[in-house]
Amino acid sequence: MHGVPYYETRLNASALRAQVPPFHVMKVWAAAAERGRTHGDVVNLSAGQPSTPAPADVRAAGIRAIDRQVLGYSDPLGVRELREAIAGHHRRRYGDDTVTADDVVVTTGGSGGFLLSFLATFDAGDTVVLARPGYPCYRNVLSSLGCRVVELPCGPETGFQPTVAMLEELDEVPAGLIVASPANPTGSVIEPAELAALAQWCDEHGTQFVSDEIYHGIEYGYGPPSASAWSTSHEAIVVNSFSKYWSMTGWRLGWLLVPERLRRAVEVISGNFTICPPVPAQRAALGAFTDSSYAEADAHVARYAVNRKLLLDGLPSIGLTRLAPADGAFYVYADIAHLTGDTLAFGRRLLAETGVAVAPGIDFDPVDGHSWIRLSFAGATEDIREALDRLGRHLPGRDHRIAIQGEHR
C-alpha cells in the first residue's frame, strides 16, 4: 500500500479530536455538586437548564406509553404522529402552513440534531462561520470533524449577532453559517428581516444556513419576536428541542426541519448512529402540544421574566454594568473585566467563598471570554435573590484581579 499508513491516519484523527477544548461549565457543575455535598449552600447559576418540571400532559403521556409498552424502535426519523404534531406546532407558533411531517426529523436532543446536521452537510476542510460569543459545542464538534471554524466577533454594535455585511467581508464563501436566536449566552434575538437577509445570502451563495431555534418561546417582549428560518428558506436547516421551553432537558429529544436534498443523508446517518431517538421520550412529547402544556411552559417563562428583571436591576447596583441584552433565553452575559482577566479562576474562587456558581465566558468566546461570565436565571426566584445578596456582600472592597491572578504565580 502507498501513501500515509493507516495507523498514522488514525492517530492524526485521534489527535485532532483530543485537541478539542472541553466544555468548561461541566467542571463547574461537578465542583458545584461537590460543594453542595460538603456545604449544602450552593446557588447554581451556571446550569443551562430549567429547574421546572416537564408539563403534566407530557409526564402523563410518558406514563401511558410505559404502561402500554409501546416502547420498541421507531422509524429513524421519529414517530410519525410526533412529526405531524411538530409540523402543527410550526403552524401554530409561526403561522407557517408549509411545514409537513416529511420535513421533520426527530433527534436525540438538540445536540443530536447538530451532529446529524453537521455530518450530513459538511466535509473535512469546509469553512463554517459562527458568531462569537456563541454556544461552544458548535465550534468543538465542527473542529472534531476537521472543519475550519471562523468565528465572527459580535458585540453590542451588531446586537451580538452576525450580519450580511460581515459575511460580505469574508475572504471566501463559507460552506456553512450557524446562527442562534435567541442566543446562548447573550440572549440576543435576530430581527426577522435580518434573519431573512442572512438566509437569502446563504441561498444565493450556496452556503448551508443552520438556524438554532432551541430557545424559541422564551422571550420577554423587549426585542423583536423570534422568526423561524424555515418561513424564509426551505434550504435552511432548523434545529429545535423540547429541552428549554418545555423543560425536558434530560428526556433528550429535539427535532430538525431538513431540506429535501438532505433527508436521505440524515435518515441514513440517524439510523446508523442511534437507530432512533428515545421512544419513551417521543411518546411523552406528544403531550407537549396541548393547550395545557403551552400554558405551563408560558408560566415558566413568566417566572424567568421575574428572575431576569431581578438580575438586570441588581447586577448594576453591585458594579456589573456591561450586560448583553437578554431579550430571550434565560441568561445574563456580564462583562467583569474590572474584576478579573481569568473567569475560570474567578469562578472557582467565587464558588469557594460564596457558594455561587457561574459559567466562565471562555466556553462561549475563547478570545474575549476571559473577562465575561454567564449567569442563568432559569432557577428559583429565591435563588436569584440569594445569589445577588451573596455577590453584593462579596464583591465590594476587594481587589479580585490581584487575588485571582495571584493563584497562577
Automatic annotation (TrEMBL):
Keyword entries, A-Z: Aminotransferase, Pyridoxal phosphate, Transferase
Molecular function via GO: pyridoxal phosphate binding; transaminase activity
SUPFAM superfamilies: PLP-dependent transferases
Residues annotated as domain Aminotransferase class I/classII large: 41-391
Cofactor: pyridoxal 5'-phosphate
Protein family (similarity comment): Belongs to the class-I pyridoxal-phosphate-dependent aminotransferase family.
Keyword Transferase tagged: yes
EC number(s) from the headed UniProt entry: 2.6.1.-
Matches recorded under CDD domains: AAT_like
Name by which UniProt lists this protein: Aminotransferase
Organism for this UniProt entry: Amycolatopsis pithecellobii
Keyword Acetylation: no
Gene Ontology biological-process entries: amino acid metabolic process
Pfam families: Aminotran_1_2
Cited Gene3D superfamilies: Type I PLP-dependent aspartate aminotransferase-like (Major domain)
